[in-house]
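Handout, page 2. Input:
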Amino acid sequence: MPSHALIVSGSGRYADPWHPFAATSARVAEVLEGVGIAPTVTEDVDAALAALPGTAPDLLVVSIGAPDGPAPEGGDHAPGDPAVDAAARAGLLAHLAAGRPLLALHVSSTSLAFVPEWEAILGGIWVRGTTMHPDYDRARIRVETDAHPIVAGVRDFEVDDERYSFLRVGPAVHALAWHEHDGRRHPLLWAREYGAARVVYDALGHDAASYDAPEARELIARSARWLLGEL
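Output:
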C-alpha cells in the first residue's frame, strides 16, 4: 500500500492575496504521485490539523498563509477562536510526537503564530520587518549537491520564484539550498529532526510556475521520500 500524504492547503483565514494555494498544492500532489505517494489535498486547515491524531497521515504537507495576515481580496479573516487554535496546535504536536514527518512549504514559515513551538519545529521562520524577498523573478538557486540524500545528484538551477531572505534560522540548521542576496547566503531548504519526527522546510514554491523547474520538483520528491524513510 502506498504511503499517504495529507496536503493542508491555504484557504479561508489561511489564504492571502499573493499565493495561489490551490494551484501550488495541485503541483505538489502531482510530484508526490509521481514517486508513488498517494496525496489528499484539504483546504479545511483547522479541522485537518485538529484531526491529525486520528487521521494519522504518513506525511503531513503544510502550505498555508498567516491567519493574522492580510485576507484575500474581497474577504475577511475570521477572528481567532482560542478553542480552534488550541485544537489545531494539539493535533500538530501530536502528529510530531508520534514521530510522523512534516514538509512545510514557502509561506508556511509566516504562519501558525498560535503555535509557540512552530519556529523550533521548522528551525526558522519569517520575521515581519526583517525578512523580505526581492521581486519575483528568475532566481539562481545554489545546491550543496550530495550533502544529504535530499540533494543527492541535484545541481544548481534556475527557477521563477520568490527568494526569501533574512529568515530567522536556528544555528543548528544546515542549508541544503540557498540563494545569494546583498552579499549573503540565505537558506531556502533544510532538513532536521524535531524530537522523533523528521522535518523539511522548502522556502520555494510561490506559484505553479515555481514547479516548472525539474530540480524544484526533484527536491520536493526527494524531501518527501526522505521524510518517509525511503532514502
